[in-house]
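Lecture notes, unit on binding sites. The following record was shown on slide 14. It pairs a sequence with adenosine-5'-triphosphate.
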Amino acid sequence: MIEVNNIVKGFGDKIVINDVSAVMEPGKCNLIIGSSGSGKTVFMKCLVGLFTPDRGQIVYQGEDFTSMDDNGKKEIRKQIGMLFQGSALFDSLNVEQNIQFPLDMFTDWSTAEKRKRVNEVLARVNLKDANKKFPAEISGGMKKRVGIARAIVLNPKYLFCDEPNSGLDPQTSLVIDKLIKELTEEYQITTVINTHDMNSVMEIGDKIIYMYQGHKEWEGNNKEIIFSKNQRLNDFIFASEFLRDAKDMRMLEQAGKIENNRNMDDLLK
Ligand SMILES: Nc1ncnc2c1ncn2[C@@H]1O[C@H](COP(=O)(O)OP(=O)(O)OP(=O)(O)O)[C@@H](O)[C@H]1O
């Protein structure tokens, strides 16, 4: 569990994160949404310790990360897996070497133990037999899966994903979302995802935090979001006409004003 208590972060005179609090639970996908420049990346960087908040606390499993010394922070960071935008694989390393990298950095396991673990996570992300391929030889979706395998190879308690669907087609995005959700539930990981992808919001948003100009404007889940009366949130999520129409139909359907002859849940998934 991660608790964020009233964090504030600014650069010079400009306050970029303004008094944001949130609780992120294990086994849940916590999505951070908001328009460009609303502070999502700075918020995530504060959570993982790449930025130090000017005020407030970030508490990992009851321990105040913000006031820890370097050794304490290092211990928490060992429990964090990161999936970077664009996967950030090492081009000169093959798939298994990429995944093995954190094991080389943080464990003193034997080569056989490392190889076994690499093969386990490769199987878990459905990428058997890709061990010897180089990043340039695999598709964007496969790269993401390698990135995910690398992020979970040390059995993290926390997983941070920055725009996991960027550059992927909608179908591959669904596969990646499903994989992240399954892993989150299976290993009870506290997962935090920065995203612009409304499909992801509807599909895997156990908790959704909507950031607006640096503050938390709205919080809820994927069932609640389309019924929200928050005007700024509605302007943001219903920028797409399809979603706006779908929302109107769903409301009419729920109010019994139109027949339920199609499954809007499936459409909105
Ligand atoms: N290192 C920095 N120094 C000064 N200002 C910064 C720094 N990093 C971010 N900012 C500012 O903080 C604000 C929020 O930026 P942030 O990158 O968090 O937005 P975002 O919501 O992630 O946007 P996007 O969706 O485009 O990635 C922006 O105005 C940005 O210019």
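Take-home: The mean pLDDT is 90.
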